[in-house]
Amino acid sequence: MNNSCIDTAYDARDADGTRAMYDDWAASYEAEVTANGYATPARCAEALADCVEDRNVALLDFGCGTGLAGLAFKRAGFKVIDGVDLSPTMIAQARAKGIYRSIEQIEPDTSPDETYAVIAAVGVIGEGGAPISTLDLLLHALPSGGKLVFSFDDATLADPTNTGRLNEWLDCGAARLLFSEHGPHFPTKEIESTVYVVEKA
């Protein structure tokens, strides 16, 4: 694929289309996002590390892609990281990094097989990616006191449905916001994202 992959990633598509896009993009994905200064994985890892005392807790990297977020979590001190993703081609690259305890392909709208006290969804939910219902799926999967770190990029933030769903959880007290910060996502393209850490009540 060519240098427009980041731009076309925001196009609407179904889950099969998303899987196909990332399968096709896998070979050049890391080179392209790195060249554009992809900052959100490190930002999510730093935010989560500030909110989690025990770095030995098992962390699920939901939508792990090629493992860039998993690598950021490892560098932040997390020692037990599992990954799941739609794309088998992306998973093959993530597995080769040797940072995941386990990694597997999942189908859309699939809840984690086991209970994780910490879940990450870095650059996963939003325009061209997983639907906002994924936020519900992941928060429901957490135990009480469990933490979710995730990001909404500018395109996702532009649709009030997405922040509205988050606020539904927060306003009723089902979850509480531990961290929120808007900052760089793809700096070379002047795209930013908000990183959130929420704790389930």
Structure description:
This protein has 201 residues and is α/β, with parallel strands linked by helices. Helices cover 39% and strands 24% of the residues. The protein contains 8 helices and 7 strands, in the order H-H-H-E-H-E-H-E-E-H-E-H-H-E-E. The protein has helices at residues 5-8, 15-35, 40-51, 68-75, 88-96, 133-141, 154-157, 160-171, and strands at 58-62, 80-85, 102-105, 118-121, 147-153, 175-186, 191-200. The chain has a 7-stranded mixed β-sheet with strand order 3-2-1-4-5-7-6, with helices on both faces. Strand 1, helix 4 (68-75) and strand 2 form a beta-alpha-beta unit. Helix 3 (40-51) packs across helix 4 (68-75). The longest helix is centred in the N-terminal third of the chain and has 21 residues, at 15-35.
Defining key terms:
7 strands; alpha/beta; 8 helices; seven-stranded mixed sheet; 39% helix
